[in-house]
Every structure is written in C-alpha cells, then in structure tokens.
Amino acid sequence: MIATIAPASPRLRVLDAPVPAALRIPASSAPARRPEATRRATAIIYCEANFGSIDGKTANGLVRHSEKYAILSVIDSEKAGRDSGVVLGENPNAIPIHRNLAEALAHAGVVPDYFIFGIAPSSGMLSNHERSLVLEAIGRGMNIVSGLHEFLDDDEEFSAAKAVSNVKIIDVRRPRAKKDLRMFSGRIADVVCPRIAILGTDCAIGKRTTATILTRALNDCGVKAVMIGTGQTGLMQGARYGVALDAVPSQFCSGEMEAVILEAVEVENPDVVIIEGQGSLSHPAYSTSSFILRGGAPNGVILQHAPGRSNRCDFERMPMPTPASEINLIETFSDTKVIGLTINHENMTDAEVSSAIVRYERELGVPVTDALTRSTERLLDMVFSAFPEIKTANMRREPAVDA
Question: Which residue, among 174, 175, 132, has the nearest Cα to 157 in the 3D structure?
Fold first, then answer.
C-alpha cells in the first residue's frame, strides 16, 4: 500500500502531482487488519515496583485498554494481591497483580502468548535482573513485547534464546528501515477532515489516555474518529495507525507523522483524526511535540495538565509550566488553536479537581474537564464547539425516524 490520494475520498483534496518516493508506504509495513472476532493474544505484564506510577505508564495503559492483548495479570511484588483497576484508582477489573512470574503463570493455568515489559524507564534500558526475567519468560515459551529504546532482538543472548524456544521478540519502538523512512512533503495540507492533537505540559501526564477516551466517545456517538499513536504504549494497545516518534531519526519525524495520517485518512475516511501527543513543547528534554505540530499540522489542540504536579517528571529542579504559558507557546509555534484543557488528577481530591476546572475555565476561556473522572460529554463539547461541521455532518447521516 502506498499513501496515494484516492479520488473517492472526501477527506483529502486531490492533487495531480505523484506521491513522492519518500512518502511511499511499503506494503510490508502497512498495519494489519484484525477481524473483530479474532481471539486476542493472552499476556502477562511485568511492571515491578512501578505499577500505578509514572514509569509504569505502559502497564497502566494496557490494563485500562487493549485491543490487541487479553491481559491476564500484572507482576509487581509491592502491590501483589491487589486488583489492578483498584490500584489505578478505578473500578475493579479482575486483572490481579502477582508477586513474580511463577505466581502469575500458576494463576493463569497456561503459558500466556506474550510477556510484555510494561515499564517505561527514562533510560529505556534493561537492568541485569530484568534481563534474567526476560530470558526466563523466553525459556517458558512466551513471546516478548518490549517498548524500550534498547532493541532486545538485536541482543545475541536473547536472539539465541528465542531461536531455541521458537518464539518472537517484538521491539515496538523499532523504526522502519532507513530506506523506507518518509520525508515531509506538505501533503498534510490536503487533508480536509479536522486533526486534533492531545498535547501536554509534561511527559507521562495522560495524553494517550485522553486521546483514547475521546476517540472512543466520538465513535460511540456516531462520529468516525481514528487515533494516531505516537508512542510505544499506544502501538501495544492496538493502534492501527502510528509510529513510535521518539525512535525515528529527527530528519524523518515530520514526514513519518504526516505519512501515517495520510494513510489513515485514505483508508478509513474518518470525520476527525485524533493525534496522541508526546512530551511537551516547552520541555527541553523532548522535541517530539514539535514534530507532531509540524508533521500533523493539527487544526486544534487539547492540552493535558497536572495541577498537583510541582515539577516535571524525572526533573526535580524543573518546575511545571502553567497551562497559559504552554498554550501561548503552542499557538505561537504553530498555526493552531487550543480548544480545551484536560486535568490529570494525580495528587488531587475530587473537590480540588472541580475547583481547578472552574478556575482554569475562567482563566483560559476554554472548556476544561478530567477525562477519567468526568462525563465524556465535556470532551465531546470541546470538539463540537470548535468544529461544529463534524456534528452537523453526523446528524445528516443519521437515518430519519418516522413520526
């Protein structure tokens, strides 16, 4: 499949120019279509000492939502015996937390299909103990899924072990071959349907979760929305379109971002595209937000902020920016508009969340909500207020009801 522009698609304007070679999508890299009836692969997630915390965001996300894997349990000895949903501050989900791999396997009663490394450390590398655990999982016949910057399939010891056990190692962050990477072409300007990016004031702040909730809410109310994953967790969850942006050489980041959106629009013909954000535009340690704004050229942005967070993750001497300063930076850097603010309620009571919503709406003049603890109606209002044509077009498609 190549990212050509189909004349039948109303979501793309047609150009006479051919698709540049740098924008072509090799057939081997096209996302597989999984029939809804297909059995989800079973998996155990390793998240020792980090489940429910910032560095456990991959495990946290997979427990909340996964189209690709049926999560059987989580490994974290510090929270063993508890329900993972409750640990996340949500309703029980019947996904237990176990002390170690042996206990998790005994509870499962069978060897699961996959062992998922669910920690996202800032180093992106395995410790010696974790290496031993991955080797144990391979030895028991489990395929490995890793979102680390360290590619496990390139490791001679892991490669030899997988050959003996006849299993796979999936390095989610591995970019496509350099010869297949796409350069920015400007074709993003030909996408007609709105593109909304979920950006944030920090990393690990809930951008992916908000993007997932919003995408589901739009589809549930009859608006066809497609989410573009930009990080390893979203891809593990089953995002049909996406790229682990922080693993792509910077020269190709905008092009890869643009190309995957073009593919999603061409294939799915959505009413709206939701783009998962990465890092923070104002954060000096990350630059991925800039590539999302350039390559994705979103028409609107929803900003995620954690009022209870005093400093940036992993940077104790770096205070959090205010939403107002981040909004000013985003709207100065890119030709877009922030259409709403979402709250990450960590370290906050429900009353404090309600107070923050009122305060920020008054201060910023945009709708504000908490995607996890408040009704999705407020999220939908952000989209429909900024892009009324989406709701209008959807209403036109609804079948008439006889009086």
Answer: 132
CATH annotation of 36-171: 3.40.50.720
Domain with CATH 3.40.50.300 in the chain: 180-397
Superfamily of domain 180-397: P-loop containing nucleotide triphosphate hydrolases (3.40.50.300)
Paired tokens of 272: 């709206």
The H or E element that residue 97 is part of is strand 97-98
Which has more confidence, 401 or 397?
397
Identify the bridge partners of residue 70 per DSSP, sorted by sequence position.
42
Beta-strand runs (E) in 272-319 = 272-276, 300-305, 311-312, 315-319
Model confidence pLDDT, tens digit, residues 205-247: 999 999 999 999 999 999 999 999 999 999 999 999 999 999 9
Distances (CA, A) of 224 to 25, 53, 58, 306, 358: 23, 33, 26, 29, 30
How many residues comprise the chain?
403
Identity (one letter) of the amino acid at 250? Answer: S
Which residues of the chain form CATH 3.40.50.720? 36-171
Distance CA 288, CA 292 (A): 6
Strand 241-242 vs strand 41-46: parallel, antiparallel, or unpaired?
unpaired
What is the per-residue pLDDT across 140-199, written as a single tens digit (0 to 9) for each?
999 999 999 999 999 999 999 999 999 999 999 999 999 999 999 999 999 999 999 999
pLDDT band at 403 (very low <50, low <70, confident <90, very high): very low
pTM as predicted? 0.86
CB 280 within 8 A of CB 200: yes
Picking from 13, 78, 92, 81, the residue whose alpha carbon sits closest to that of residue 50 is 78
Work out whether the CA dihedral 239, 284, 348, 84 comes out positive or negative. positive
- Asked which of 23-37, 120-134, 306-320 is least confident by mean pLDDT, the reply is 23-37
Q: Are strands 143-146 and 114-117 parallel, antiparallel or unpaired?
A: parallel
Q: Provide φ and ψ at 227, rounded to 5°.
A: -95, 135
